[in-house]
Amino acid sequence: MQQATDTKATSPADLPVYRFRSLAGANVVHGVTTRTESLPLHGNMSYMVGEAPDLVAQNRQAWAGAIGYEADRLVLGRQVHETSVVVVDESNAGNGADSVESSIRRVDGLITSTPDLPIGVMAADCVPILIVDPERSAVGAIHAGWRGTVDGIATAAVQAMQNAFGSDPADLQVCLGPSICRSCYQVGDEVVDRWESGRFARVASPVDVTSSGYYFDLRAANLGQLREVGVRNSSIEVSDLCTKCANGSMFSRRGLGPKTGLFTSVIMLPEPGLRST
Ligand SMILES: [Zn+2]
């Protein structure tokens, strides 16, 4: 008897992983999961949106195979739209891999210098940010929604890498992943007020005022912060893929509703002596 999931059987190599051009030559394993008909639940990676956990687990295995890490070693934080960034190591392997409960509490940024330890962040319109320090062999995965953005999580992540690994911001390669674009992200007064009264208002101008209301550019707000803390402009890649404009090829809360799934951006240093391909 065929299992129901057989109709969704796809080789991991055929799954549509999003990858950053600027990391093609970097010695890291990375990838961003997408939304696809080839997997159950369209490839949702999150246990928190009320979908069948066994199918989410199946998706986590499939995407891990496609990106190139072991699913049961994935480290995830329980994201709360704040600015905590924590250093993780081998002792954290698998935290968040098979349940929400095992994930690292109240954290929106993970950084590590441990090889073969995949770290990830979930999003569905918020900006996922991956960071590589090729000099100090360290990586980071950051979740920047509007609250994290106005409170400076990108800045906090770079500073955490300086403190933990001695990273020089000028050495960092930073990638802003698929996220909601400026023209899709209409926001209320509270977002604009928080940005304009916040610490980073001078580093970027992400607010458009139009006759239909305010629009906020999450990418520009994070980009401005990264430049200000010393990341080179030429070392920052900003994906122009909008989660909402992507017409269902990415999960988007604004595009598909609040119960939609989430995608994951993962980064990992390879085992010593091995180069990623
Ligand atoms: Zn858009």
Description:
The chain is an alpha+beta fold and 277 residues long. The protein has a domain at 24-180 and 241-268: CNF1/YfiH-like putative cysteine hydrolases. It is built from six helices and 13 strands. It has helices spanning 53-67, 146-151, 153-165, 189-196, 218-228, 253-256; strands at residues 29-32, 75-76, 85-87, 109-112, 119-123, 127-133, 138-144, 173-176, 186-187, 207-210, 213-216, 236-238, 263-268. The strands form three sheets. Strands 3-4-7-6-8-12 form a six-stranded mixed β-sheet. The chain has a four-stranded mixed β-sheet with strand order 1-13-5-2, with no helix packed on it. Helix 3 packs parallel to helix 5 (218-228). The radius of gyration is 18 Å and the shape is globular. Bound molecules: zinc ion. The site of zinc ion has 6 residues, from loops. Zinc ion is lined by residues 181, 183-184, 242, 244-245.
Residue stretches low in confidence (pLDDT < 50, at least 5 long) are 1-7
Shape: globular
Bound molecules: zinc ion
CATH topology of the domain at 24-180 and 241-268: CNF1/YfiH-like putative cysteine hydrolases
Share of helical residues: 10-25%
Structural class: alpha+beta
Number of helices: 6
Question: Which strands sit side by side, in order, in the main sheet?
Answer: 3-4-7-6-8-12
CATH superfamily of the domain at 24-180 and 241-268: CNF1/YfiH-like putative cysteine hydrolases
> Main beta sheet: strand number and arrangement?
6 strands, mixed
**Quaternary assembly:** single chain
The CATH class designation of the domain at 24-180 and 241-268 is: Alpha Beta
CATH architecture classification of the domain at 24-180 and 241-268: 4-Layer Sandwich
| End-to-end Cα distance | 38 Å
Radius of gyration of CA atoms, rounded to a whole number: 18 Å
